[in-house]
Fold:
Amino acid sequence: MKFDWGQLAVRRRELLPFTSAEDMSRRTGAFACEEDGTATILSFFVVITILLMAGLGVDTMRQEMERTHLQATLDAAVLAGAGAPTGSEVADVKAIVEDYFDKNDMSEYLNEIQDGDIITSLNATSVYAEGELTVDTYLLHLSGVDELKAVGAAQAEVATPKLEVAMVLDVSGSMWDKLDELQTAANSFVTTILNGSDPGDAVISVVPFAFNVTPSPEMFDALTVNQTHEYSTCLRFADSDYSDMSIDPDVSYEQEIFTSLYGGFNDFNDFYRSCYNDDNAEILPYSINETALHTHINAMTSDGRTSTHIGLKWGAALLHSDFQDVVDDLQVAGVVDASLDAVPAVQGEAETLKVLVLMADGENTESYVFDEGGSYVGDNSDLYRLTWQETVTTFDYAWRYKKNGVDIRYSYDESRCSNDKWTCEYTVTPGPEQSAYYLYDSYWDEWLDTETVGPDIGYWWNSQYWVYDSDFEDFQDDDDFVSLERLSWEEAWGLMTPDYVYDYSHSGPWNDYRWSSIDSGTIKDTQMQAICAAAKSGSVVIYTIGYEITAGGNAETQLEGCASSLNHYYPADSDDISAAFNSIASNVKNLRLTQ
Structure:
């Protein structure tokens, strides 16, 4: 093919810059009439289309990048605002959101936060925010689109879970000189927990423990108990019960025998009582009332030996959902606030945090029990209740016939009754029924009037009033006799102690109670670790405080083993017991925020 150099020269001239408007018009017209340029026009439109599509991709990518940046900033800002300290004001939360945008040089893109966008309470914070920005286009402006908008919105809510706390507090005899500091620290803990929660969102139970734990009468009645006496409400648990944190109201439990190792008749030694049946020793369950909690804590007194395992058993049970039926009964009885619903919550429920705080000042010590199935439990004790009713005879008048046998003479002189010619009339009035307790001594075959209030049928010996068995039997044929009731041993031990029987009858009960079936500290330690493991498996966070105990000793070992971790154990003395409780309160607050 011959190449036309002349045509090339013409085309080169056409491609040279225009020298004037006329030149542009001439050359453009020539180009339009030139058929050889058809393909070039098509190529031009293809290039323009490609440029527009590329511009759309580039500019929309830039828009998405800016939108993503805006959305990420919104997400982080509302999360920071929702995570503001519990109880923050709306203005404080708003400042956090605005400050977050300011530090990212994006303040101009945050829309004005409206009323209702931020909602705060003691237990939850909700934050909503919107943002908007514009992106100048690079290539899309060729098609008339000069800018693109990027908008975003974000909402975050941090809701603090409800809180159930059981405070298990050692009030054994060794706490007598430490109790004031404990009460101050425990009261501060209560205030911190309740003030950091919406009303009703934090409930606190107080469980004092020594030899045993005393449920309130209403709580006792709501449980299924094999009741053998009416002196106290303490329960006795089997070994297997400590592997389960629940005290199920549908399961039958044994009642602890109420007595004391030392003491007299109806006169018990406080330190050795098997159960403390005083109001200030009772459990205070599920309280949302700061004043009531402070009053109960301040009323606690110290006595007895240490049974930490039983305190933990009750504390864990108060956090188990099996107690919901008990709470229903307590609400009907007016013991628990009627506004509380579904307390205690089901284990593992995300909306409720369960915490047990144990404070003890020493290791578990031995306590005394009668041998189960032995001679001094069950029916037919050596103690009897005699009931009698003395009559009151009142002289009314005397009378006799005259000599002629017709007329009757009357006299109100009781001395006439000594004359057999006179007949005296009396009114016999039954007196009130009276009771007295008699301890039968089978060795001497005699009866001890325990309180010297029985009928005058015996004799005095060694400052005590005794009745021969024969005289006691004769009295039962007397008109004044009403009944003789033989008490069960459980009823008897609520009136007398093994020590009393030892002094006036025989040593059998003393030896049985003191030596036969002791609950040793070692047994209690094993049961303590079992119930702690069960509680931790039941979603309970356990904090323990060792109050002035020996570092590295058995008490500390047991408390460390019970705690949820070594960081959950606090050694403390009188100077920092409050600091320990305050630290736990702070940890509980932080734990609620991270649930």
About this structure: The first strand starts at residue 118 and ends at 120. The first helix runs from residue 5 to 15. The radius of gyration is 46 Å.
